[in-house]
Specification:
The protein is an all-beta fold and about 170 residues long. The chain contains no helices and 13 strands.
Length: about 170
């Protein structure tokens, strides 16, 4: 099995300015910088050994279920059977006219960051990212399908997906 290491970074800086009778007030949020790191392994929080990435296309009004336990293959052709997922990234192509909808499989749904029935609509050119050092459980045959859907019936959509996980629950 291939070794996986990953770094996922988040940075936020923000300033609000305004005007009033006596000047131009300004408030700045101090920069927030978070680096989530995953080292190679399966036994501990913050470790990963599964990586799936792909660019995919879904027809108008169509959906697909990403089977996280036993159907995907990694870049080396090895079948992935995740016991936990620690990061999910979905980026909608900027040329899409419809949203990429993530979540809410009708059966055997992956209960990840949005629960069993939650969804997140990724607008064209935007992305969805969720991470968990401790991971979200994947249950083969009963809780392993990550649904991806096209929000519209007129055109297809294209999206990038990255799933990072581990084969043993921490």
């Amino acid at each position: 099995m291939a070794g996986v290491t990953a770094e996922i970074a988040l940075g936020i800086t923000a300033t609000i300015t305004g005007t009033n009778d006596l000047g131009s007030p300004k408030m700045r949020i101090e920069p927030i910088s978070i680096l989530t790191q995953f080292t190679e392994g399966t036994a501990a929080v913050g470790q990963a050994n599964v990586l799936f990435s792909d660019t995919r296309t879904i027809a108008a009004s169509a959906t697909e279920n990403i089977d996280l336990a036993g159907a995907l293959t990694d870049a080396f052709g090895t079948t992935i059977t995740a016991a936990e997922v620690v990061a999910i990234y979905v980026k909608a192509d900027a040329a899409n006219t419809n949203n990429v909808v993530v979540g809410n499989a009708s059966s055997n749904g992956f209960v990840g960051p949005m629960g069993a029935t939650g969804v997140y609509a990724v607008k064209p050119g935007e992305y969805f990212l969720a991470t968990s050092q401790s991971g979200w459980a994947v249950t083969a045959a009963t809780g392993d399908l990550l649904k991806i859907a096209n929000s519209g019936g007129t055109t297809g959509i294209t999206y990038d997906i990255i799933v990072i996980g581990r084969t043993v629950a921490a």
